[in-house]
Amino acid sequence: QVQLVESGGGLVQPGGSLRLSCAASGFAFSNYAVSWYRQAPGKERELVARIWGFGDSTNYRDSVKGRFTISRDNFKTTVYLQMNSLKPEDTAVYYCNTKVQGIDLWGQGTQVTVSS
């Protein structure tokens, strides 16, 4: 079954850290770029970070540069998002995404809440 499953969200204080995981199955994982998106209440879903198939290229939205790191383990078919120095404005549901044979694939999302 082709799927993405996120985990690792939770409640954290400002300045804290979380690591999200996105476990993939059912497709040739290393052939595809994988992205993390997020959606805050009342806002549109936005791209947070993307990593290409062999991890040799990444990009980030400006607001997370220097705080978030995307990485992947192709043997474990998993993509990670290490989030440091978290801010209240990082609060959102985080989704991982890839496009397999032209079809968008989304996970169910994991909630990240940054609050004191």
Structural topology:
Blueprint: E1 3-7, E2 10-12, E3 18-25, E4 34-39, E5 46-51, E6 58-60, E7 68-73, E8 78-83, E9 92-100, E10 103-106, E11 110-114
Parallel strand pairs: 2-11
Antiparallel strand pairs: 1-3, 3-8, 4-5, 4-9, 5-6, 7-8, 9-10, 9-11
The profile of the biggest β sheet is: 7 strands, mixed
Strand content: over 45%
What's the Cα radius of gyration?
13 Å
- The number of helical elements comes to 0
Brief descriptors of the model:
globular; mainly beta; 116 residues; 7-stranded mixed sheet; 4-stranded antiparallel sheet
Description:
The chain is mostly beta strands and 116 residues long. Helices cover 0% and strands 53% of the residues. It has strands spanning 3-7, 10-12, 18-25, 34-39, 46-51, 58-60, 68-73, 78-83, 92-100, 103-106, 110-114. Strands 2, 4, 5, 6, 9, 10 and 11 form a seven-stranded mixed β-sheet that branches. A four-stranded antiparallel β-sheet has the order 1-3-8-7, with no helix packed on it. A hairpin with a 4-residue loop joins strand 7 and strand 8. The N and C termini lie far apart (39 Å).
Short synopsis of the structure:
This protein is an all-beta fold. The chain has no helices and 11 strands.
